[in-house]
Amino acid sequence: MAKQDFLVELGVEELPSKALKPLSDAFTQGITKGLEEAGIAFGKVEAFATPRRMAVRIRDLADAQPDKPVEKRGPAVKAAFDDSGNPTRALTGFATSLGVTPDQLDTLETDKGAWLVYRTVEQGKPTVDLMSGLVEQSLASLPIPKRMRWGARRTEFVRPVHWLVMLFGNKVIDTPIMGLTPGNKTMGHRFHCPKTLIIPTPTDYEVVLEQEGYVIADFAKRREMIRSGVIALAEAEAGGKAVINEDLLDEVTGLNEWPVPLIGRFDKRFLEVPAEALISSMEEHQKYFHVVSTDGDMLPLFVTVANIDSKDPSQVISGNEKVIRPRLADAAFFYENDRKIRLEDRIERLKPIVFQEKLGSIYDKSVRVAALAQKIAAAIGSDPALAERAAMLAKTDLVTEMVLEFSDLQGIMGQYYAADDGEPADVAKAMNEQYMPRFAKDGLPTTMTSCALAIADRLDSLVGLFGIGQPPSGTRDPFALRRASLGVLRIIIERELPLDLQTCCEWAEENFSGLTEDNTASNVVDYMLDRFRAYYDERGIGAEVFLAVHARRPTRPLDFDRRVKAVEAFRQLPEAQALAGANKRVSNILSKQGGDSVGENVNSNLLQDAAEKTLAAQVDQQADKVIPLFEQGNYANALQSLASLQEPVDSFFTEVMVMAEDDAVRDNRLALLNRLHNLFLRVADISLLPTAG
C-alpha cells in the first residue's frame, strides 16, 4: 500500500493566546483518533500552532483503508430450505437484502448447528475521500466554550477562518470545509510577509513559512526560542536572570509568530512596592518577564517579546516602557493607600461580603474559623491566641485596593500589610500560608499557626456546606471542597499533626447554627477519607491497600497514613497473599457463625490437634509482641511480625476441621480464629488484599 505525507492548515484571525496550545493539541488528537477508527495506517504526527494558524502533518499516511473481510450470518440451514429442498422465504429474503443469490452463500458449521453465511471483502476507501470528513469532525469537536459567527456566513468557530491548506503528497484535497475550499496556499507574517505562499508538499511546510514567511510554525520550537532569547538578553544587558513563568511563556508563545525579545526599564522607586505586585502587574497586563539579580532581588527591568523585527527597536522598547509606567504607578498608589488602614480596622468591612447565603458573611466565617483555629492550635501544641488573631485578620486583605485590582495577590498582600501593622511574625505569615497548598504538589504552611488556620478555614467550609446539603456532586464543586479535603490531609500527614478528623469536624459543627443535615461531622469525615484514594493513587499505592485500611475507618490522617504504608510494605512480603487468603476465609467463617458475637477467649484445655495447639501458641506469642507496637502506631513492624503466622495458619486449615461436631470444640476454634483475625484488624482488613491462587 502506497504512503504519502498529509498536511492540513487552518488559517484564522488571531486565536486566544491561552487557548492556542490546548486547541492545537485537541485538533491533532481528533485527527489521529479519526485515522485510528478508520483503520488507516500512519507514521509520525506533528502539530504546528501560531496565533494565525493550526496545522497537523501526518507522515507516511496510507493511501487507503485496508480491505476488510465481512461475514453476515443468515438463517439456519434447517430454516433455509423446505422439505423439497427449495429456498424458504427466510433464505430468499436474506439473499435479496444483500443483492446476491442463495447459491452465493456459504455454510458455517457451529456447535448449535449449520448456518448460511455471506462472505465478501469490503474494499477500503481511498484516504483522500476520508480526510475532509476527519478534519471537519475534529474541528467540530474542539473544546471551544463559545463559538462566533462573522459576516453573512453560518459557519461558527472560535475566530473567523480565512484559508485552508490540505495536501496529500503534492495533491490538493479540495473538498470544502467550513465554507473554505482547500488549496496549497498559506499566508506569511502579518507585517513582514503579508502575502500568499505556496506549500508544494507537506514536507516543505515549516521551511517555507520560516524562510519566506517570517513564521516559526512549530509551537515547541518557538517556545524554546523565546525562553533562550529572554534569558540571554537579561544576562547580556544587565547581568541579571529573567524569571520564566511557564504559563506566561506558553501565553507569550501563543502571541507571536516571529518572536523578538527586547529589554526595557522602569523607575527604581517602584521597587518599594512588594515584588509580587509588580510581577502580577507585568505578567497579567503586559505579558512581560521580570528580571532579578544574582542574589534574587528584583531589578527595575523587564523583557518583552515583540512579534516584529523592528528596524528601530528602541521605539518599541520606549512604547512598552510608557505602557508599564502607569500600571506600576497604580500598584504603588494602591500599596500606599492600603497601608493607611490597619488590617484590624478592616474586619468590620467583611460583614457585607456574603460567603454563602445560608452560611453568612465572610465576617461570620472569620469568627467561626477563629474559634476552631484556637482548638486546633491547642491540639497541635501551638499558640491559640495567635491562631485566633490570624483567623480574624485572614480575609481582611480582600477589601484592600491592591487585592481588588489583582485578585491573585490575595494572602500575599495580607502578609505584607500584617507585617507593616506590627502583627506577630506567625500571624503575618499565616495571612499567605492559609491558602497553602493552593494546588497539587504546592508547598505547605511552615508554621503551626499557619497550619491551624489553613485546616480550620477548610474544615469550616466543608462542614458548613455539607450541613446545608450542598456537598460536591459529580463534576460540580464550586467551593473546591475536593481540593480543600486533600489540602487538610496533606497538611496533617506531612506536618505530622496529631489531629482526629472526627473531633475537628465536631468542633467545627459546634460553631454553626441552622445546619439542616444529620450526622454532618461524620459525613464530612467519610468524604475526606474517601479522598485518600486519589492521594495514594498519585503515590503509586494500589486501591486494594487503601480499601484495606479504609475498612477500619481510622479518622486520624497521620495514623491512616502509617497504616497504609505498613500494609503496602506487608503486601510485598512472600507470606502476604497466603495470609490475605486465610483472613478472607476466616472472615467468611466468622460472618456465618455470628460475626461480632464470636468471642476470642481460647480455652487451652479444649485444643485437641497439634496444628491448633501450635497456632494458639503462636497467636499468644504474637499478641504479646505486637499489641504494644500497635499502641505505639508502629504498624509496619507489627505486620512484619504477624507475617510469621503464615505457616501455622496454613497447617491449621490443612489439618483441623473448624466446624467440629462438639459445640465447645467448635466454638473454641472459632474464638482462636477470631483472635487471629482481630490482630490483623488492628491495622487493616487484609482480606481485601490480593490472595494466592
Automatic annotation (TrEMBL):
<keyword id="KW-0963">Cytoplasm</keyword>
<protein>
    <recommendedName>
        <fullName>Glycine--tRNA ligase beta subunit</fullName>
        <ecNumber>6.1.1.14</ecNumber>
    </recommendedName>
</protein>
<dbReference type="InterPro" id="IPR015944">
    <property type="entry name" value="Gly-tRNA-synth_bsu"/>
</dbReference>
<keyword id="KW-0030">Aminoacyl-tRNA synthetase</keyword>
<keyword id="KW-0648">Protein biosynthesis</keyword>
<dbReference type="InterPro" id="IPR008909">
    <property type="entry name" value="DALR_anticod-bd"/>
</dbReference>
<dbReference type="GO" id="GO:0004820">
    <property type="term" value="F:glycine-tRNA ligase activity"/>
</dbReference>
<keyword id="KW-0547">Nucleotide-binding</keyword>
<comment type="similarity">
    <text>Belongs to the class-II aminoacyl-tRNA synthetase family.</text>
</comment>
<dbReference type="Pfam" id="PF05746">
    <property type="entry name" value="DALR_1"/>
</dbReference>
<keyword id="KW-0436">Ligase</keyword>
<feature type="domain" description="DALR anticodon binding">
    <location>
        <begin position="582"/>
        <end position="678"/>
    </location>
</feature>
<dbReference type="Pfam" id="PF02092">
    <property type="entry name" value="tRNA_synt_2f"/>
</dbReference>
<dbReference type="InterPro" id="IPR006194">
    <property type="entry name" value="Gly-tRNA-synth_heterodimer"/>
</dbReference>
<keyword id="KW-0067">ATP-binding</keyword>
<comment type="subunit">
    <text>Tetramer of two alpha and two beta subunits.</text>
</comment>
